[in-house]
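#struct-queue
[09:14] JT: dropping the first one here, sequence first, then the structure tokens:
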Amino acid sequence: QMQLTESGGGLVQPGGSLRLSCVVSRRTILSTFTGALMAWYRQVPGKERELVATSFSGGKADLVDSVKGRFTISRDNAKRTLYLQMNNLRPEDTAVYYCHSNSFGALSWGQGTQVTVPG
């Protein structure tokens, strides 16, 4: 399992931007990070955690329809960091955002970072 630490959340006005970061502990060897599926999820109180964006080990990425054209997922392997660039934020993007990794079935979650976009 990986140790994941998110940062970058905050309060932003509608239309604004934030960049979330998820740093993987340096105890994780680089090949484990580069070979892992990494993803961002989000959750609001009373609702299930939902997938937002996925970064596959081969370099492909996928986003849910509600954030396509506004969010970008990327990773910097040298820094063992996963990013979520969020532009044109909307009140419905308000949630706790979680970083997730799946390395050959070993699942890890970060502690979450709050993103608030007032309506």
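[09:21] JT: and here's the second one, same format:
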Amino acid sequence: QVQLVESGGGLVQPGGSLRLSCAASGFTFSRYVMSWYRQAPGKERELVAAITSYGGRANYADSVKVRFTISRDNAKNTVYLQMNSLEPEDTAVYYCNAKWATIGLEYWGQGTQVTVSS
């Protein structure tokens, strides 16, 4: 059974930091590109960051470059999103995504709420 379980969300003040984790099971984690998406109320889901299967390359949305860092530990089947200098505009539900485009497989986590507010 495929599972992506996010954790680490919560309420943080502007300028603060959070580290999201996504624990994967039920599939060959190291073969998948892992991404974080987010969806704010009334907005479409957007890609925040993605990292290649063995972590050699990462890309970021312009709005989070420099502030966020995506990483993965294939030994632990876990992907992380370190979020620094958080802004109210970062408030959203953050979703973990696993994708192996070559064979057309994609999985989503249930999401974790991040709220940036004073």
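[09:30] RK: nice, looked through the second one.
[09:31] RK: The CA atoms of residues 29 and 108 lie 13 Å apart.
[09:31] JT: good to know. DSSP finds no helices and eleven strands in the chain.
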